[in-house]
Q: What sequence folds into this?
C-alpha cells in the first residue's frame, strides 16, 4: 500500500482538509506527489518556476497521480553581495532543507519533484530530498540568456570598477545593468548555480540532458512534465529512493564531472554536505584535478548553455571515473 494511503487511514481529517484545498475526491486515492520549488520573486532563477511546477503537476495527472504544490523560496547571493545580507546565504541553504523535511514529513507523500535553479536553493533541495528519502526527481530551472556582446551579470563588477575609475560614464554603466539579466533563469556562466544544476544531473537525480537548458526553452517545460510522469512511476517501484540510487560512486562521479567542467569552488561546501546527509560523513570527499571541458566564464566566449551543444552532461558523465 502506498504511504499516502496508509496516512489516510490513520488521519481521518486529512481527506476533508485536502478537499477544502481543491483536491477532487478521486485525487485522494491516487499516488500523491510532493512538488517542492523555490518559486518566488526573489531573483530570476526562481521567478519562472511556477510554470515548471504546473507542467510537472500536469505530467503527474497524465500518469494517474496527483501533485501537491509546496514552496520555499531562496535568497539571491548576487542581490546581497557587498552587504550584511550575504551573511544569511549559507544559512538559507539549511533553512530550505529544513523546510522541505518538515513539509514532506508532516504529511507523507509517495514521491517528490524538487525544483530550483540557484546557489543555495538547489543544494538545499538536494539536502532536503535526501532527508525525506522518497523517490525523487529534480527539475533544474535552466539558465538565462546572455545580453548583448555576451554580457552576463558576472561582468557587472568590472563595469562598476571602470565607472568608479572614470573609464566609462554612467550611461554605459546603466546599459550594463539593464542588459546583464535579459531573462529568467540562473546566471549565464558556470558559477555556483550552473554547477549545482550539473551536479543534480551527474548524481542521477535529474533527467538526462535537462541541466543548463535555456530557462525560456519549451524543452524545459517538457522535462518538467516528464518529471511528473516519472515521479508517479517511481512511487510504485521498489528500491528507488535517493538512498538506494545515490551512492558514494555517484558522488565520486559528480566530483569528476565537477573537475571536468571547472565548476564553482562553492561546490566544495555543498557536495560534502550532501554526503554527510546521506551517510553521516562528508570528510571523505576528495576533489581531484581533471580535464577541462569548458571555461564558461562571463569574461570569456562561452555561456553556460553552450555546454549543451558538445553533448551535455549525460555523454560526458559516461566517461568520468576516478583513477
A:
Amino acid at each position: 500500500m502506498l504511504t499516502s494511503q496508509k496516512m489516510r487511514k490513520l488521519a481521518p481529517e486529512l481527506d476533508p482538509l485536502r478537499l477544502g484545498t481543491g483536491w477532487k475526491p478521486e485525487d485522494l486515492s491516487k499516488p500523491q506527489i510532493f512538488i517542492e520549488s523555490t518559486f518566488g520573486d526573489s531573483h530570476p532563477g526562481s521567478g519562472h518556476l511556477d510554470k515548471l511546477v504546473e507542467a510537472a503537476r500536469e505530467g503527474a495527472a497524465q500518469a494517474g497521480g496527483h501533485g501537491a504544490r509546496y514552496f520555499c523560496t531562496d535568497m539571491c547571493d548576487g542581490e546581497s553581495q557587498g552587504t550584511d545580507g550575504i551573511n544569511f546565504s549559507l544559512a538559507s541553504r539549511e533553512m530550505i532543507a529544513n523546510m522541505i523535511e518538515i513539509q514532506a514529513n508532516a504529511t507523507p507523500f509517495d514521491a517528490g519533484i524538487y525544483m530550483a535553479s540557484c546557489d543555495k536553493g538547489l543544494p538545499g533541495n538536494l539536502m532536503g530530498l535526501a532527508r525525506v528519502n522518497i523517490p525523487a526527481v529534480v527539475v533544474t530551472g535552466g539558465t538565462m540568456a546572455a545580453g548583448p556582446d555576451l554580457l552576463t551579470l558576472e561582468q557587472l563588477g568590472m563595469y562598476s570598477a571602470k565607472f568608479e575609475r572614470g573609464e566609462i560614464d554612467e550611461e554605459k554603466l546603466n546599459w550594463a545593468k539593464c542588459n546583464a539579466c535579459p531573462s529568467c533563469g540562473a546566471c549565464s556562466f558556470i558559477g555556483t548555480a550552473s554547477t549545482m544544476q550539473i551536479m543534480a544531473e551527474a548524481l542521477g537525480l535529474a533527467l538526462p540532458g535537462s541541466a543548463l537548458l535555456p530557462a525560456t526553452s519549451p524543452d524545459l517545460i517538457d522535462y518538467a512534465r516528464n518529471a511528473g510522469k516519472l515521479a508517479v512511476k517511481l512511487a510504485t517501484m521498489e528500491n528507488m529512493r535517493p538512498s538506494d540510487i545515490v551512492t558514494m560512486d555517484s558522488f565520486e562521479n559528480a566530483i569528476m564531472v565537477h573537475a571536468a567542467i571547472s565548476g564553482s569552488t562553492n561546490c566544495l561546501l555543498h557536495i560534502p554536505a550532501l554526503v554527510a546527509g546521506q551517510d553521516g560523513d562528508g570528510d571523505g570527499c576528495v576533489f581531484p584535478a581533471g580535464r577541462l571541458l569548458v571555461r564558461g566564464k562571463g569574461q570569456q566566449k562561452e555561456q553556460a548553455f553552450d555546454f549543451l551543444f558538445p553533448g551535455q552532461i549525460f555523454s560526458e558523465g559516461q566517461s568520468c571515473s576516478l583513477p
